[in-house]
Design a protein that fits this description.
mainly alpha, elongated
């Protein structure tokens, strides 16, 4: 082992450092992925948001075709949060003020402060867009968690590959050293001629 370290110090050092970086990095990425997914799940679960049940007027298959698979379920993960935000809340918000956004309706409400209808629309749009944005943030973090998971797995597989490479290098070095040892021993035992004085 010591001879191997002396003969290929640069490769051993690079391989060892790379192995440690990959193993620590992979572990941290998996931990981060788990943390992100648990955080998203726990925060969404506390909100107790539910998709309407199947067959209810609130989940008409013609109006909400992409939500039928989630009928009656709780919004408790990233994909469900995205579906609820983009295919449920967004559809309802589009019908409040003829497709206008909160900022457009709010500007109109400020220009006409006595208009109760505009004020009500502005408040409803503000609440809906805020909830939609928060749900999309939850979905975004779930995607970050998923990416971290797969990169963590790849890093750990890379660490295994580097370890196997180091092990293979050690074994090959041992074989080469064992093959050269008898030749070196034989040449060192040959008597050298004594020079004449």
């Amino acid at each position: 082992m010591r001879n191997w370290l002396k003969s290929v110090p640069t490769l051993v050092t690079i391989g060892t450092v790379l192995f440690l970086v990959l193993i620590v990095g992979g572990g941290l990425l998996l931990w981060g992925s788990n943390f992100a997914n648990n955080m998203v799940h726990d925060q969404l679960k506390e909100q107790k948001i539910q998709f309407p049940p199947k067959g209810s007027p609130g989940l008409d298959p013609k109006e909400f075709p992409g939500l039928q698979q989630y009928a009656g379920q709780a919004v408790d993960n990233g994909p469900k949060a995205k579906a609820y935000a983009n295919e449920f809340i967004k559809v309802h918000l589009a019908g409040i003020a003829d497709g206008k956004t909160y900022s457009e309706v709010s500007a109109a409400a400020l220009a006409d402060p006595k208009n109760a209808k505009l004020d009500g629309q502005a408040q409803t749009l503000f609440r809906g867009e805020t909830l939609r944005g928060l749900l999309l943030y939850a979905w975004g973090w779930s995607v970050v968690g998923m990416i971290a998971y797969w990169v963590g797995i790849a890093a750990l597989l890379g660490a295994v590959a580097v370890f196997l490479g180091l092990l293979l290098g050690f074994v090959m070095h041992r074989r080469l050293a064992d093959r050269n040892a008898p030749v070196h021993a034989a040449t060192s035992n040959v008597r050298q001629p004594v020079p004449a004085v």
